[in-house]
Amino acid sequence: MEHSLQELMRNARAEENTFLYMLHEEARFDQLLFWRYVNSIMELTRLTADQPLNREVAGAVSFTYSKIMEYLQWHHSDSDVYEIEHFPYVYAHHIVSLLGEVVNGYYQGIVLDESHFDEDFPNPAFAGLVANEQPAILQLGYYKQETNVHAIGFREEDGTYRIVLNEEEDRDLVASKLSRREVEGTYLFHAPDASSAHQLFHEWVMSTYAPYRSALNRS
Question: How many CB atoms lie within 10 A of CB 95?
């Protein structure tokens, strides 16, 4: 319990090498630190479910959750310059929903089971998974300023990703088990890893699609 409590409190203080620190100081989504934060709350929930709420701990849960939602709101605001690097856009809804369920679970004394987690965005606390596991297929998306652009990344033998533009629904394509050649669209670029792929795709959309070109030209 002590380790989980320390992790939560360090996030509340936005100390170095915490998820809140990365959002606040570096504007970067660190998946490993995200899961450390989430799992610290889940572990505290499991260990204190039959006890009265600790006001200090409850305050830290509420405060960190509200700050994360604040950063995500800034990130998705068209009028704000704040941008989170390596943000997994395609899992944005899942991340917001999951955080809400974890926090509500703490106050209700309910620990989420494995069924609440997306197998494509795995929690390393289950099935011995590691947070930086590199999936075979990436689904990339960008949804700001009414722009809805999709791409798919295929992992190569050397661990890099070949990113291709596809105008179809990514989830439907992947679920259909079509061959690689059938799914592929227009080649965009290669990314060194899964985390970089999201950021590079974000930058590619901003540099390629209007109204981003127009906005950049005016700046």
Answer: 19
Residue of 144, 157, 146 lying closest to 201 (CA atoms) = 144
Span 70-78, average pLDDT: 68
Say how far apart CA 109 and CA 119 lie, in whole Å. 24
For residue 198, give the nearest of 122, 123, 143, 141 by alpha carbon: 141
| DSSP per position, 22-48 | IIIII-B--HHHHHHHHHHHHHHHHHH
R_g of the chain computed on alpha carbons? 19
Pick from 159, 155, 157: nearest CA to 180: 155
Determine the length of the chain. Answer: 219
Element at 195 (helix H, strand E): helix 194-208
Strands (E) in 122-200, as ranges, are 137-142, 149-155, 161-165, 186-191
Residues of the chain above pLDDT 70, percent:
73
Is the distance from CB of 152 to CB of 138 less than 8 angstroms?
yes
CA atoms 81, 87, 91, 94: torsion sign: negative
d(CA 45, CA 26) in angstroms, rounded, equals 29
Residue with tokens 């699609």: 209
Report CA-CA distances (Å) from 159 to 154, 170, 183, 190, 195. Answer: 10, 21, 20, 11, 12
Per the confidence metrics, is the pTM higher than 0.90?
Answer: no
Rounded Cα gap, residues 32 and 130, in angstroms: 8
Can you name the residues that pair with 141 across neighbouring β-strands?
A: 150
- Beta strand 137-142 with 149-155: parallel, antiparallel or unpaired? antiparallel
What does the alpha-carbon distance between residue 163 and residue 171 come to, in Å, rounded to a whole number?
15
